[in-house]
Amino acid sequence: MNEEWQEFVFQERKAGLDLEAQAAAFEVRGHAVGISDDEGVFRIPARLAPVIREVCDAIGRAHCR
To answer: Which residues pair with 7 in a beta bridge?
Structure first.
């Protein structure tokens, strides 16, 4: 977590071209289709879910004070 920017920062393996193409074609309401030049697609292992959840919970507690 980058506290100055209030953003999550992940370092993981980049997605391959196939997964990147799938993500670029995926439609989400309110979001343009495609991947902008300042975005990327990364693989986040499911085993990191507890760590990500812990960070989210800590941020939530900090903002509820």
So the answer is: 2
